[in-house]
């Protein structure tokens, strides 16, 4: 979660041959579609890159019902006929379970699975809560390719410790040290091209992880208790749509009345998301200050209309990134709060969501029609 998967997807897209059709399936843990915008900031860029993008929201595709995954893949294959399909699961996904699902007999004639690529943030690895977490280790254990980023602060001894830790979990994994950021001008073209060529080469290789087909028993998580609520609107007196709590469909694709907010608890995290009409303009500085004061936040992402224009927001505890994007149909904001500090030490996060609604609406500085 927040390791840099979206950045890697953009890098893979850059390596796509011009004559190939690709498709991208994005699994969002939350219920408001944002990651597709983080990958491609406009529909024009998606068309230019000849990439079809589809989202499956509302939980890990490996943990929830397989039906949303089956429908999404089926539609991508039948409607777009891609030559390559990239699947980006959530950072909380179980790699082996997803591999098992995609190994089902009915996919054998339609899909040929290849490299399993994992992104590892060296900044996260330095923290014991990540390094000792079974889910964090599972992504390394079941990877064919491990892309290590954010490692510049590691000294030589720490890099050796990291490599030894990886080898203990997965001695066969192919490691790529991501020593360039394609979005900056600080890297020479040769370095970028070499990095992209290495990524592209690994995409075409058969997966040893999949070939081994190691069968494991994966504990099924308890079903989440979902609370979907309309955002209290202090700026307009009109009824708001209240979607059914039994509906697992992606809220991003529904015709709901805005402004809108949902919140829920899944596993050991709390998620919340807001959608606001495009004509609500928020004070950019106050919005950032408000977001950073939220309790125990682990990830904040969004695409929001602000006083500085339309901004893409992508915050992790070790990285605060904003970038200008093109005009969107509405503003979308999603937060992930940590609900526990360990397997036994559980913290009950009690949030007054209506108070948060009022605070967010107070940041709106202008509404135009």
TrEMBL record:
Domain CobW/HypB/UreG nucleotide-binding, chain residue ranges per copy: 1-172
Entry-linked InterPro entries: CobW/HypB/UreG_nucleotide-bd, P-loop_NTPase, Zinc-reg_GTPase_activator
Any one Gene Ontology cellular component term annotated for this protein: cytoplasm
Identification of the protein by name: CobW/HypB/UreG nucleotide-binding domain-containing protein
Lineage of the species this protein comes from: Bacteria, Pseudomonadati, Pseudomonadota, Gammaproteobacteria, Moraxellales
């Amino acid at each position: 979660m927040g390791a840099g998967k979206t950045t890697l997807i953009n890098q893979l897209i850059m390596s796509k041959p011009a004559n190939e059709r690709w498709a991208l399936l994005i699994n969002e843990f939350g219920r408001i579609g944002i990651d597709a915008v983080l990958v491609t900031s406009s529909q024009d860029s998606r068309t230019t890159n000849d990439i079809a993008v589809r989202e499956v929201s509302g939980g890990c595709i490996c943990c929830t019902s397989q039906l949303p995954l089956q429908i999404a893949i089926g539609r991508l294959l039948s409607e777009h006929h891609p030559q390559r399909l990239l699947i980006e699961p959530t950072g909380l996904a179980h790699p082996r379970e997803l591999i098992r699902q995609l190994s089902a007999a009915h996919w054998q004639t339609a899909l040929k699975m290849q490299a399993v690529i994992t992104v590892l943030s060296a900044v996260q690895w330095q923290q014991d809560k990540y390094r000792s977490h079974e889910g964090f280790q599972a992504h390394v254990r079941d990877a064919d390719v491990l892309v290590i980023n954010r490692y510049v602060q590691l000294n030589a001894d720490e890099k050796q410790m990291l490599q030894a830790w990886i080898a203990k979990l997965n001695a066969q994994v192919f490691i790529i040290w991501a020593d360039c950021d394609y979005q900056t001008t600080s890297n020479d073209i040769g370095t970028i091209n070499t990095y992209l060529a290495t990524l592209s080469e690994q995409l075409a290789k058969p997966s040893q992880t999949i070939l081994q087909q190691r069968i494991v028993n994966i504990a099924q998580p308890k079903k989440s208790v979902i609370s979907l609520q309309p955002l209290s609107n202090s700026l307009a007196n009109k009824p708001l749509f209240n979607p059914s709590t039994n509906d697992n469909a992606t809220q991003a694709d529904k015709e709901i009345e805005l402004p809108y907010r949902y919140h829920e608890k899944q596993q050991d995290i709390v998620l919340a998301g807001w959608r606001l009409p495009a004509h609500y303009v928020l004070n950019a500085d106050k919005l950032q200050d408000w977001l950073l004061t939220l309790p125990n936040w682990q990830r904040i992402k969004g695409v929001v209309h602000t006083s500085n224009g339309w901004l893409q927001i992508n915050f992790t505890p070790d990285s605060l990134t904003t970038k200008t994007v093109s005009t969107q149909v509405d503003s979308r904001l999603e937060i992930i709060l940590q609900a526990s500090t360990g397997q036994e030490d559980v913290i009950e996060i009690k949030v007054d969501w209506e108070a948060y609604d009022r605070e967010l609406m107070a940041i709106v500085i202008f509404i135009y029609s």
